[in-house]
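Support request from a user on the community tier.

User writes: "When I paste my structure tokens into the form, the page sometimes reloads and wipes my input. The last time it worked, I copied everything first. Here is what I submitted, just in case something in the input itself triggers the reload:"
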């Protein structure tokens, strides 16, 4: 594993971080309103977030997490399904009349947090699975986004899986976030990579980036969206978390003391377990009413989709406050520059 030179967090687990570095990068432009909320869903919905997005044949496709309940009453029913939406411009979305995917049996309690990739003529969806014996990562394929075939479900504890949009050295490649309990300090998790010949059997697992390699993190990191291939490397976004015990309510729960920000890095084209560049500061941090005062968990940004347009614009889809899907844009060259040049 090759880590960026000098990229080490100065913080011990849960030690308070320096707030002065938490500013959204100048190259980022936010769309002013959410692109998806519970108001857009034609069936019962309270929270719509952590959505996978891709663009195929000029059409935008979104699969989103839908937590059922009453937003105005700040009540959830304990039911989660995955919804499907389409768009012509990536901004205005039309949600299908029924959820597209759900799993529940004696062992599986729910699936959530989808990520979507199109590869080898099929849609491949990664998702998290809550089971009675731990959290797993699942993968399913579909040709029509209506009928899904489960290809694999990992052993616990693993989640946040994203699949690369093409094979690397003949294998499928995914980023993932195992959650070791005994070998790390509590809620201190990292980004790993695994390979597969068939989407079923996964191995050759290795560390990509430790939480201690991210200067704006004091607890955990995890993959965000399927990476984008550029001539400089795999452009990759991830979430990074800092914890502060002094933080208060910040949402519907009695207390929410974490802040989720979005980071950006470059991975080697031929060996994407190697980090070849990373911004020393967050790419996007919670700002404004929708991200710091509104929703289920405030100060929580979670990247989940990233698309490169023909004009060099990158669309970044992310969840705000575990409640809505937002959109930010930047030029791909500016994002690459953040990973390769000092930022002051």
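"...and here is what came back when it finally went through:"
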């Amino acid at each position: 594993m090759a880590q960026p030179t000098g990229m080490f967090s100065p913080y011990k687990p849960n030690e308070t971080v320096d707030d002065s570095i938490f500013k959204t990068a100048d190259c980022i432009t936010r769309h002013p309103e959410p692109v998806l909320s519970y108001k857009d869903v034609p069936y019962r919905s309270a929270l719509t977030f952590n959505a996978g997005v891709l663009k195929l044949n000029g059409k935008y496709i979104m699969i989103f997490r839908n937590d059922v309940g009453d937003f105005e009453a700040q009540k959830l029913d304990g039911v989660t399904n995955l919804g499907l939406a389409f768009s012509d411009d990536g901004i205005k979305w039309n949600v299908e009349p029924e959820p597209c995917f759900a799993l529940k049996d004696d062992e599986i309690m729910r699936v959530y947090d989808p990520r979507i990739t199109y590869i080898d003529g099929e849609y491949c969806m990664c998702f998290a699975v809550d089971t009675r014996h731990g959290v797993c990562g699942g993968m399913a394929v579909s040709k029509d986004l209506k009928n899904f075939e489960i290809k694999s479900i990992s052993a616990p504890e693993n989640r946040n899986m994203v699949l690369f949009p093409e094979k690397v050295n003949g294998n499928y490649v995914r980023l993932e976030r195992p959650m070791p309990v005994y070998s790390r300090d509590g809620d201190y998790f990292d980004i790993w990579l695994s390979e597969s010949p068939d989407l079923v059997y996964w191995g050759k697992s290795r560390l990509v980036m430790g939480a201690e390699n991210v200067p704006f993190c004091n607890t955990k990191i995890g993959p965000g969206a399927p990476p984008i291939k550029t001539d400089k490397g795999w452009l990759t976004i991830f979430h990074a978390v800092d914890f502060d015990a002094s933080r208060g309510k910040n949402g519907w729960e009695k207390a929410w003391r974490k802040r989720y920000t979005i980071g950006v890095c470059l991975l080697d084209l031929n060996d994407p377990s190697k980090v070849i560049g990373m911004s020393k500061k967050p790419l996007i941090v919670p700002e404004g009413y929708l991200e710091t005062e509104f929703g289920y968990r405030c100060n929580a940004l979670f990247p989940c989709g990233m698309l490169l347009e023909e004009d060099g614009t990158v669309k970044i889809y992310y969840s705000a406050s575990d409640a809505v899907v937002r959109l930010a844009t930047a030029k791909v060259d500016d994002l690459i520059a953040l990973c390769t040049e000092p930022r002051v």
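Agent notes: The reload is a front-end session timeout and is unrelated to the input. DSSP finds two helices and 21 strands in the chain. The chain has a mean pLDDT of 94. Escalated to web team.
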